[in-house]
UniProtKB/TrEMBL annotation, chains A, B:
GO MF annotations in UniProt: DNA-binding transcription factor activity; transcription cis-regulatory region binding
UniProt key word rRNA-binding: no
Protein name: TetR family transcriptional regulator
Gene3D superfamilies in the cross-refs: Tetracycline Repressor, domain 2
Coiled-coil residues: none
Keyword annotations of the record: DNA-binding, Transcription, Transcription regulation
InterPro entries cross-referenced by the UniProt entry: Homeodomain-like_sf, HTH-type_TetR-like_transc_reg, HTH_TetR
Length: 193, 193
DNA sequence: GTCTATACTGTGATAGAC
DNA sequence: GTCTATCACAGTATAGAC
């Protein structure tokens, strides 16, 4: 193994995989250390606590999410802006599956942690931006279903499809963008029912 | 307090609320006992183990889900069947928020438990039924996004909207059915892109 | 920088008094 | 049926050798 790979990076990656698969609360420092090939104490040398390890593991992805959602909220409400947002969002999901998986599945029980709160604030900002104007409830739901559906379809996909039909990421990307575009791009002109 | 309410029911309800809010792993028998006004040992008298408590808490909802999905898979692929399925599914979500919340947020880390596996089997059966025929990937995604989106929108709604704008359940029901119908009812005639 | 050894806390679960 | 007392164990975290 090349000495280029640093222990802290290996530990961070092992932790991310553990958090995503068995959950944060159920992950022990011992398991993480074992998976990375280090001792439990080495983990606590590189990261002051289990929470610090979570911060390091999913923090970067949360950073991306913040800028992604922030840009969309700040930007115009034009159809073109929506289109690029959809693409960015899908790419974000595909490029940060483990972190998204962790946040989606464990976020509720991790309220109060700085990383989690940052993500929640960003998401709430998006929700407010969608709901503030007098948009009909169905429109708000369409947005929620689209983003939550895309997110959780990938998360559930990781859960169910892992062993079997391994679809190519490129096809998934295209199909997801297609469905989200259907839902969101022509939303203004849709009937309420 | 009327002696009509049984201790086991109170404990089951308290456990469900704990599991849904702080998660299964993070919930302690002590907390559950405190919330219900009993001692930790009383919990273990009524339920042999923490897992048995989970079974009792979300089992009934999983039963409903099994029949719901089973009926749809067994039934025809007609538009009318889809319409009634959408309505039943939304009603199921609205009527079992805490159980759904628990399964969605904790299910991944609880693999192997009988209740969880029953639900996973039912969901996989639905997924197979949708994917078995040569449906295009976008159509499969549309189904996934619709059901996962509806599910997680309500779950996230419980997370974010609890304190503020308390939308009436009736309106949510109508809006959700509307969005799901848009996505699923005319799916056969949609273009791939 | 990585390890061993250990302290301390809280957990799920059991036994037995009432 | 509910309680107190106790168990064995796993968890995070600390101290210090090398």
């Amino acid at each position: 193994m090349p000495s280029r790979v640093r222990a802290s990076d290996e530990l961070r990656q092992a932790a991310l995989e553990q958090f995503a698969t068995v959950g944060f609360a159920a992950s022990s420092l011992q398991q993480i250390a074992d998976h990375a090939g280090y001792s439990k104490s080495s983990v606590l040398y590189h990261y002051a606590s289990k929470e610090a390890l979570l911060e390091a593991a999913i923090g970067p992805a949360i950073d991306l999410l913040e800028t992604l959602l922030g840009d969309f909220v700040a930007g115009g409400r034009t159809g073109a802006a929506r289109a690029t947002f959809i693409e960015s969002f899908v790419d974000f999901l595909l490029g940060n599956r483990l972190a998204v998986h962790t946040f989606v599945n464990q976020g509720q029980s991790l309220r109060g942690l700085p990383v989690i709160e940052r993500a929640n604030t960003a998401i709430r900002g998006l929700a407010d931006s969608i709901c503030d104007d007098d948009a009909p409830l169905a429109e708000q739901m369409r947005f929620g279903v689209a983003l939550a559906g895309a997110t959780y379809t990938l998360v559930a996909g990781a859960t169910f499809l892992d062993d079997e039909q391994k679809v190519a990421d490129g096809d998934v990307r295209e199909a997801l963008i297609s469905v989200l575009s259907e839902l969101l791009l022509t939303a203004d002109s849709r009937p309420t029912r």
